[in-house]
Amino acid sequence: MKILVTGAAGFIGMHVCERLLARGDIVVGVDNLNDYYSPQLKHDRLQHLEPCPSFRFVKRDLADREGMTSLFEAERFDRVVHLAAQAGVRYSIQNPHAYVDSNLVGFINILEGCRHNKIQHLVYASSSSVYGGNAKMPFSEADSVDHPVSLYAATKKANELMAHTYSHLYGLPTTGLRFFTVYGPWGRPDMAPFLFTSAILEGRTIDVFNHGRMKRDFTYIDDIVEGVLRVLDRPAEPDRDFDPLQPNAGRSQAPYRVFNIGNNDSIDLMDFIEAIEDAVGIAAMKNFLPMQDGDVPATYADTQALKEWTGFSPSTDIKDGVSRFVAWYREYYAL
C-alpha cells in the first residue's frame, strides 16, 4: 500500500514510518519542520528514514490548501496516517493561532484530500487531553468530553467532530486515536521524560508541578506504533448496535471510531521520576511548583475497546521503557 504519514519528522511519525517501511509499504512523509522544538532533531529523525528507497519526504505545511490538494491528486494514496499537529498544552496558552492553523485548517485540508481521492481509511491523532475536566477514572471513549481545559484539547475534540461529519456525509472511514503521554527513544524535548533526563544529567533542578501530586498513563512508543498499525489495518465500520437514544461517543452509525491508546496503568509522577533516577544513576534535585494552567492532575486510559477491536493492548513496563529511553538519550548526545 501507499500511505501518507503527516508529521513524519515527529516523534510518533518517525516510528510509524519505520514500521510501515519494514513491512513493505510505500510511505510519503510530510512535515513542515517548524521550530516548536529543535529542527535538528527532526532532521535527524528523517535521516533515520531516508536510506529506505520506499520512503520519500515532502516538506509542506498542512495549512497550504493548494499544496495539500496537489499532493493528494498526484500521489493517489491508499490510506492516511495523520499525526502532524501543533502539540503542547501549555504552548497553546501562549500561541493559540498556531493551533488553529495546524490543527483545524490543516485537518480540514486532510479531510478534503481524503474525501476527493477515495482514501480507504484515515487514522488521525487525537489526545487524552480531550478528557479535560473529567474526574471518572479510567477515561473511557464512551464518556462525554465536552469540558476541555486547554485550546489544544479543544482542537483535538474538534478534529473528532470534523472526522465524524466526513464519515457521516461521505462514508469516509475515520479512526481517532487518543494518545496517552507517549515516551521513548527519539522523544519530544518538551515532554517530561526528556526534560527530566536532560536536567538530571546536567545537574540542573527539575520542575515538579502540582507538588508531585500527578498521575499519568505513560505509554511507550512501541506500543503506540503497534496500536496505530493494527487500527490502520482495520478500517472503521458503522456500529450496527449504535443506539442514538443512548449514544456511545466512541462509535457511530457512520464508519467512525475513537480509541484510547494508553498503558492502562496510571503511574504516580514521583514514581516515574524515580524510574529515571534509577536509569540515570543520579538523584534529581526537585523544585515543587503549583499546577500549571491547562494541565490536569491525572490521566488513565480504559483500553478495552482497542483490545476488542484489534486484539492489542499496550503493556510495556515503565522501568523497561524508561531505561530504553535513557539509553537512547545517552547514545544520541554521546554522553
Question: What can you tell me about this protein's structure?
Answer:
- 40% of the residues lie in helices and 16% in strands.
- It contains 11 helices and 13 strands.
- Helix 6 links the parallel strand 5 and strand 6 (174-179).
- The radius of gyration is 19 Å and the shape is globular.
- The model has no long low-confidence stretch (mean pLDDT 94).
Task: Look at the structure and give the mean pLDDT.
Answer: 94
- Spatial sequence of strands, sheet with the most strands: 3-2-1-4-5-6-11
What's the tally of helices? 11
Largest sheet: 7 strands, parallel
Could you tell me the radius of gyration in angstroms?
Answer: 19 Å
- Portion of residues within helices: 40-55%
Element-level helix/strand string: EHEHEHEHHEHEEHEEEHEEHEHH
Number of strands: 13
Structure characteristics:
alpha/beta
Task: Summarize this structure briefly.
With 335 residues, this protein is an alpha/beta fold.
Q: Which helices and strands appear, and what pairs or packs with what?
A:
Elements lengths: L1 E5 L4 H12 L3 E6 L7 H11 L5 E5 L5 H11 L3 E4 L8 H4 L1 H21 L4 E7 L23 H20 L3 E6 L2 E2 L8 H10 L3 E4 L6 E2 L2 E2 H12 L23 E6 L5 E2 H12 L4 E4 L15 H7 L7 H15 L3
Helix pairs in contact: 1-2, 1-8, 3-5, 5-6, 7-9, 9-11
